[in-house]
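input
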Amino acid sequence: MAQTEVLTAPIANAPGSLGLGKGPSEYKEPYGGPQAYSTATETKGTAQQPAASHPEYLPVWDPTLKYPPLKPFHHHDHGLDADPGLKELLHNATVADLTPVIGAEVHGVQLSHLSPAGKDQLALLVAQKKVVAFRDQDFANLPVESALEYGRYFGRLHIHPTSGAPNGFPEVHLVHRGVNDTTAQDFLETRTNSITWHSDVTYEQQPPGTTFLYVFDGPTTGGDTLFVNQAEAYRRLSPEFRHRLHGLKALHSGHEQAQTSRARGGIVRREPVASIHPVVRTHPVTGEKALFVNPQFTRHIVGYKKEESDYLLKFLYDHIALGQDFQVRVKWAPGTVVVWDNRVTAHSAVLDWHNGQRRHLARLTPQAEPPFEGGLHQ
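output
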C-alpha cells in the first residue's frame, strides 16, 4: 500500500530540492524562535500585556536534546472503527457547518471526556468535515501528560525537529509569538503577505493524520487560521487533468526548515530528511483522493525537469490558494480546540495583528500511514 520513500541525505541534483527561494516551492518562516523570545516578558508580562496564562506550556529550545531517525510503524486509523452514526460523540452536541464543503463548529461536546468509541467517531467526523472547531473545551487546562496521552490514541506523536516545546514534553509542538515580537512585521518588510499554505511535516515518511491545536492566549482580533479542502481541490480538476496527475510523485524536504532554524540560532533535534510521496493520496477511511503538495515542503515532481516541475507545482499551488470556495477561516476564542485531518487539508496562520499581543497555541501531531494513491478510479 505504501508509496513513500524516505531520504536521509540531501539530493544534490534534485531541481530546487534545497533552495530556500527556487521556483514556486519555498520554505517561509515568519516566526522568530529563540532569538525573539523573552523569558521575562512571557512569565511576568509588561505594562501593556499580561503574563502568559499557561507558563507550563512556554517554549524552551534545548540544543543538547538529540533524537535518532524516526522508524516506520504500523498505523491503524480509528476512524475505521467508528459507528458512522456518531451518536457517542454528538448525542448532546450542536453542530454547525462553517461552509458547504469544509469545516464545522461544535458546541456541547467535551473532548477530554470522550470514551474510546467517542474518539473513534471523532476521527471519522474530522475525516469527513476536514476541520472541526470545538468550543468551550477544558483541554488547555489538562496536565500536559494527560493531553499527550489523549493524542497518542490517534497515532504515534511526532516530535518536531526544530520548534520550541514545553520543558520535558518534546512531543508538544508550540505555535508561539510572544509579546512585542516583531518578526511578522520584519517578514512583511520583504513580503506582501504572511500566508504559508502547508500540511504539517510532510517531509516525514509518515506525515500526520488527525491533528489537534488548542489555544492559551491570542490577540483580541486577528490570528485566524485558514484551511483548504485538498480533496475538493482534487475533485475540481478535470478528469483528464486528474488522469495526468495519476502516478506522479513529489519530493518533500525538511532540510530547509533545519537550515533556517540553525541560521536563526535555533535547534535541530533530529537530522532532516526528505521523502517521496504521491502527488495525489487516498484517505484510508473515506476513500477520498486529495492533492498532497504544498509550497512549504514540496520541492519538485520526481522525473520532471525543473521548468516542468515548477510549472505544474505553480498551477497546483495557485489552484489551492485561490479556491476560496473550498476554504474556511477559523477564528480562535478561549477554550477552542481545532481538530483537522492533515492528509486531506492544508492550512496557514494569518499573521495580521501588530499590537504586541501574544499568540500561544499547542499542537498534538499524531503520525499516520505512509501516503498512498491507489487506483485512478478507486
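quick obs: Confidence is low (pLDDT under 50) at residues 9-21.
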